[in-house]
Write a structure and sequence with these properties.
19 helices, Endonuclease, Chain A, alpha/beta, polyphosphate kinase like, 27 strands, 8-stranded mixed β-sheet, polyphosphate kinase activity, ATP-binding
């Protein structure tokens, strides 16, 4: 983790992440986005923040608990980071709810979409809510009194509750501070019902807790409800599985999952008009620290906004226009093996359909010449067709080996389920290497053909998930290259057995070779720059946080290498430092699709070496995970990836530029044609789908991007 540079040359990782979430929040505030999409973006900021507390804040609190007091690369101690996080998140919280109450809700109301409180309901709607409460909710609700004989119940992670303050006699109405008996109770807002309740009338809604609150007194006969306030807790959801004995990793994972909800409180959210006495009681009962309390000036948990957007009817004009992914002509075939054998095939999702990847597994499962299928699975959908076809392949007598990563955060339960299902269907399931998560995306099919055994490989930057492939941008490659096939076989032998290959022909994997390989490529550019020759590095990733890699990029910048970085999320590198990073420019693209592809490109004396990878430049990816970096060997595909990178770099609608003072600013568009790279790529595929002539496509490219020559501006 060491670095050659001073701490003030690095941004704190956690604060950089909060800045990323703020860029997502900006999409909720951007009036160029359709209104309901803005609503969904605001909901995404909430789910992002929840996961941040479950994992990153939890990690920092664990450091404090064990008296770990080492500074990070930016020089901040764990306690200092937690204090800075709290300050910055509180500021973001204000911005979130200001966006909701001052912008989105009024604009929704203007188009006839209302999120109402009980007091604002019509007589007909009140009758509906009353019936809904008494017929549906009342039988499910459970009042939980808290007193000397009934202890405070366990409050699960991310569960919404009503905290109720009760009175039984006039003495209980004495002002706070005078002696009286406190009576409190809890009511869980049941998650078996939709949080957003559709009311009679067009596009009018009420939240479930607001449908319960007016009638909550009926749960406490003989008492008077003085106050009923909603709250929820976010707990530590990160866990470290002991791998000293991996004889039953599955059992250990299942045990940890059962315990995970009973962890420490990382965040307590309460309504901002909660009385002092009720607030004090909740904080005490939940054993929360004051800095963990967040007072909310609106509905708790904005994640429900995604559900609200889905329930709105007759307003497709307020959503992004539907987009249908494109299937390349070479992949519209019943013989994908023949298509791949003739040339490498590049896919860029979601612009290119993910279906050929699914169909490849299906065809291999049904193909009589298929001998074996080997595959890594990190995250898959809850109804994955790939799982189905792998099972069918095993039942058809193929040798099927699947590495299912049980430690994929928040997908552990889903992956445990699929591991069991695959084993039941006759697949050989492995769980990876001790101490390492297997994050690479690799699929190998071995066939018997007329001229001998042939390997077909698919490699990708993103997961084999047919759902997220519709809104994550990822890149993949089909190839029958013999060298890649041998390397892929060796990787699977390493994962499933005791094989320790010392050399790979063309592939690089972490933690064995990837870090040093990338370092060597950067050194090549440094050498060229020092000799006065053109030198350039182009990279795209989700996060850039590894101090050693950042230091190497600083070395390159000092030597005169021009470095263009597209980093969607965390970026600990600081551009524009005089004498250090003046040759580094950092862009971040946040838009309709989640930018997820990883590209590493080096000018290499004009050869332009291009690699795709499953890995970001983070210490965990390079040192603690099995990751894959693969080269683009076919010239036309290399040029296409460089063209796409150029489009991304010239985006001026969804790009923010990281400035020397650490803030992100939108591109100055004066004199520029508007360009959203995601819109441009969708439009290109649309033209192809409608079988427009190549000239039309060329016109689009000329409008959207002034293609730069490789050595231009060096």
């Amino acid at each position: 983790m060491s670095s050659n540079y001073e701490p003030n040359y690095f941004t704190n990782r956690e604060l950089s992440w909060i800045d990323f979430n703020d860029r997502v929040l900006d999409e909720a505030r951007d009036k160029r986005n359709p209104l309901l999409e803005r609503v969904k973006f605001l909901g995404i900021t909430q789910s992002n923040l929840d996961e941040f507390f479950m994992v990153r804040v939890a990690s920092l609190r664990k450091m404090l608990a064990v008296d770990y007091n080492e500074p990070d690369a930016s020089g901040m101690l764990p306690a200092e980071q937690l204090s800075a996080i709290s300050k910055k998140v509180h500021q973001q919280l204000t911005k979130q709810y200001s966006t909701l109450t001052r912008s989105l809700l009024p604009q929704l109301e203007e188009v006839g979409i209302q999120l109402l409180k009980y007091d604002g309901l019509s007589k007909r709607q009140r009758l509906f809510v009353s019936q809904y409460f008494h017929q549906d909710l009342y039988p499910v609700l459970t009042p939980l009194a808290v007193d000397s004989s009934r202890p405070f119940p366990f409050i699960g992670n991310n569960s919404l509750y009503l905290a109720v303050r009760l009175a039984k006699s006039e003495n209980d109405d004495l002002p706070d501070g005078e002696k009286k008996e406190r009576r409190y109770a809890l009511v869980q807002v049941p998650d078996v019902f939709n949080r957003v309740v559709k009311l009679p009338g067009d596009n009018q809604f009420i939240l479930l807790e607001d449908a319960i609150r007016p009638f909550v007194n009926e749960l406490f006969t003989g008492f008077k409800v003085k106050e009923a306030q909603s709250f929820r807790v976010i707990r530590d959801m990160d866990f470290d599985v002991s791998e000293s004995d991996t004889s039953d990793l599955m059992k250990e994972i299942v045990q940890q999952l059962s315990m995970r909800d009973h962890t420490s409180v990382m965040r307590l959210e309460i309504e901002n008009d909660t009385s002092k006495s009720l607030r004090k009681w909740l904080v005490k009962m939940l054993k929360a620290n004051e800095e963990e309390v967040y007072e909310i000036s609106g509905p708790i948990d904005l994640g429900m906004l995604g559900d609200l957007a889905k329930l709105v009817t007759d307003h497709s004009d307020l959503l992004f226009q539907p987009y249908k992914s494109y299937t390349q002509p070479s992949l519209r075939t019943d013989n994908l093996f023949s298509a791949i054998a003739s040339q490498d095939i590049f896919l860029h999702h979601p612009y290119d359909s993910f279906s050929p990847v699914v169909n490849f597994v299906k065809e291999a499962a049904e193909d009589p010449d298929t001998l074996a299928i080997k595959m890594t699975l990190y995250r898959v959908s809850s109804h994955s067709p790939i799982i189905q076809y792998l099972g069918e392949a095993a039942q058809n007598g193929k040798q099927v080996t699947v590495l299912v990563e049980l430690k994929a955060r928040f997908d552990e339960e889903n992956n445990v389920h699929w591991a069991h299902e695959l084993e039941k269907r006759g697949c050989h399931v492995i769980y990876g290497l001790q101490g390492l998560k297997t994050h690479c995306k690799l699929l190998l099919v071995v066939r018997r053909e007329s001229d001998g055994i042939r390997r077909y490989v698919h490699m990708a930057t993103g997961n084999y998930n047919d759902v997220t492939a519709n809104f994550y941008t990822d890149m993949g490659l089909f190839t029958a290259d013999a060298r890649i096939g041998v390397d892929a076989s060796n990787i699977f032998n390493m994962l499933s057995g005791f094989s320790e290959p010392r050399h790979f022909e063309v592939l690089n994997i972490a933690p064995l070779t990837m870090r040093n390989f990338l370092k060597d490529r950067i050194d090549d550019e440094i050498k060229a720059a020092k000799a006065g020759r053109p030198a350039r590095i182009k990279m795209k990733m989700n996060s850039l946080s590894d101090p050693r890699m950042i230091s190497k990029l600083y070395d390159a910048s000092i030597a005169g290498v021009k470095i263009d970085l597209i980093v969607r999320g965390i970026c600990r590198l600081q551009p524009g430092i005089k004498g250090i990073s003046e040759n580094i420019t950092v862009h971040s693209i946040v838009g309709r699709f989640l930018e997820h592809s990883r590209i590493y490109s080096f000018y290499s004396e004009g050869e332009e070496k291009v690699f795709l990878s499953s890995a970001d430049l983070m210490n965990r990816n390079l040192s603690r995970r099995v990751e894959l970096l693969f080269p683009i060997l076919q010239e036309n595909i290399k040029q296409e990836i460089l063209r796409i990178y150029g489009l991304m770099w010239n985006d001026n609608l969804k790009t923010r530029v990281l400035t020397a003072d650490g803030t992100y600013q939108r591109v100055d568009r004066r004199g520029l044609e508007p360009l959203s790279v995601q819109d441009a790529l969708m439009h290109e595929k649309e033209l192809l789908s409608h079988k427009k002539i190549d000239d039309d496509l060329n016109k689009v490219s000329q409008i959207f991007i002034p293609l730069t020559k490789p050595d231009e501006g060096l």
